[in-house]
Amino acid sequence: MAEFEVLPEACIASILSYTTPIDACRLSLVSKTFRSAADSDTVWNKFLQSDTPLMDHVIKHSPTLANFCTKKALYMFLCDRPTTLHHRHKSFQLVKKNGKRCFMLSATFLNFLWSYPTEVEWTSLPDSRFSEIAQLRNVCTLQIHGEINTTYLSPNTWYAAYLVFKKADVWVVEHKPVEFVVSIRSGHHVSMDHYFDDQYVEGQCSRVRGDGWLETEMGLFYNAPKTDEDIHMNVYQIKGCNWTISLEGIEVRPYDS
Question: Is the same domain home to 131 and 228?
Answer without folding.
Answer: yes
